[in-house]
Amino acid sequence: MKKTVRWLFPLLWLLLCAAVLGFLHRFTVVDKTMEFLNWESAVQVLEDGAYTMFPPLIRFLPEGMENQEAYAYANLGGIPAGAAAVILLSAAALFLLGLSQGKPDVSLLFLMLAAASLAGYPLIQRYGVYFLSQEAVAFWGGEAFLWAAPLSLLVYLLFNRSREFRRRLGWAALWSAVALGIGYLISLARDGYLARYLSLQISSLFRLGRYQGILTWLTYWLAGAAILLSAYQVMTSFARQRAENQALKLREQQTQLHYQGIQQRLREDAALRHEHRHRMAALEALCRQKEYGQLEALLEKWSGLEAGQAPPRFTGNVTVNVIVQDAAARAQSLGFALKAQIRLPETLSIPGEDLCTLFMNLLDNALEACARVEPASRRFLRLKAEVRHGFLAVKCENSYQGELRRDENGKFVTTKDDPESHGFGLRQMEALAQRYHSVLDVSCTEDTFTVQTALQLPKEA
Questions:
Q1: What pLDDT digit, counting tens, does each position of 383-398 carry?
Q2: Residue 166 belongs to a domain
Q3: Cα 6 to Cα 106: distance, rounded to the nearest angstrom
């Protein structure tokens, strides 16, 4: 299924490319001669503000110049339409790429709609009479479709209201304005076409109220800036996702190493229990032989050893017990005692690796937060765990100090200086909770941070 979906999205994009090329191809072959009439030079503005049309002067063109003018007139609309088509296909590629990753950017659909309007409307309005029927030109070249692109881009901007996006768009507008201003000054100094064209557009806007030219070019610029910003966002998102995956993989490797350490401690505990049975057998033999002096000496010796070796026992489940014992020792080194109420059976249907992921991340995060609390007398960590109605219920409360951070979705994120390399404990626990048909509930009060979940225990085979 995944392999089919992986090939489906490129196929859809190729079909869209074929459709766009097919549409543009309709405007490439014509039997008629296309002529350009400069209406700006064919309008006479009267003193009362009215304007009348008058025929342009007869011109004598050199041989071949007529074809060159036709090509220039075709390029006047063809080049912007081609650029809009590139924007359309690029936005479609980004949308399908996000869809394949399960994170589609809906705003790109409106950017695609704007680009489609920019590619089609000018061509139909300017050249439609040469290539299309009168009915098609009257419908698709109407005034209503002039606003399709600006309105679609407005919706796109409403979807992208983040501060970072607005900042990048502002910088793009500033540098574009600077570049246009420099180009205008150079063209003005050389009496170039750009200066005359910009002056003509501004004059048409204020004298004749013709806004279509400026609106069209502003829309083209915004569409181009939008696709560049969207591409940048997608690339940075994938780079960030890749870095997060690498960090998660490293964290999982560390968890696996800790789990191997726990297994080693379990083997050592098994060896101690084996040694304990031998000691009990020796004590029983000395008792039968009535060697009370040797019996008393061994009892004193072994009692001292047991007192120095035996850590507190929190639960019968050896995996969870070893993890909590380690956390209790770390808490004691920080100047406070871990309080645990754990009622778990010796065996659970959840694998030991998943228990390590849950309890180690839970207690690691809690201890790191407690270490930043001053004075030490305000530090606390309370852990509760039990099995209820087929669920492993776990609740951890710890002290914290300082301001907590949340992302744009309201979820808590790490407060460390390098968030790209930290903050994966909560994500691992969230993924684990989802795997066991549950959620990770995270909340806080003024001085208490709480994490709790209830994992559905799998049915044993």
A1: 999 999 899 999 999 9
A2: yes
A3: 20
